[in-house]
Write a structure and sequence with these properties.
By secondary structure, this protein is mainly α. The protein has one domain. It is built from five helices and no strands. It is elongated and about 50 Å long. It starts with a helix and ends in a 14-residue tail after the last helix.
Length: about 140
């Protein structure tokens, strides 16, 4: 991802957080743990990790989404809302940079999604592994 795009995303943290909160509140989560007020404490740490990993070499795509046995994992709501908020902001930033090459625009979207999905995959797997409702065994095929 180009430094100008990364810098613009970092400068719009508040906008990303506001959009994430709005998207989280639109979701009909089946668990109280997915309440935005409950998950808000994770936001800054997660966004810091995503943005820190963005300026780098392209990463390989990842596999399909994990399947959820019980529907109680709040991370399955948290991360899609964060991805949408980040993508919306990135696209707005890109429209403000007409000099940006089309390849750079595409690469930035790919890098953002892949980076966030790798983090999401790890966090979803952790929560699924400690879920008390998951009695059918643990899946090792985690990806988003």
């Amino acid at each position: 991802m180009e430094e100008a795009l990364l810098s613009a995303l970092q400068q719009r943290r508040d906008e990303i957080r506001t959009r994430w909160d709005a998207l989280m509140r639109l979701e009909r989560a089946d668990t109280a743990l997915a309440n935005p007020d409950t998950l808000a404490f994770l936001f800054d740490q997660t966004l810091d990790e995503v943005l820190a990993k963005l300026p780098g070499k392209p990463v390989a795509p990842i596999r399909r989404r994990p399947t959820c046995q019980c529907g109680c994992n709040p991370m399955r709501v948290y991360f899609p809302a964060l991805e949408q908020a980040l993508l919306e902001t990135l696209i707005l930033v890109q429209t403000e940079m007409p000099e940006l090459a089309s390849r750079a625009r595409l690469d930035s979207v790919t890098e953002l999604c892949t980076t966030l999905r790798r983090i999401a995959r790890r966090e979803i797997a952790v929560f699924d592994d400690i879920c008390q409702h998951n009695t059918a065994g643990r899946s090792t095929e985690y990806s988003i």
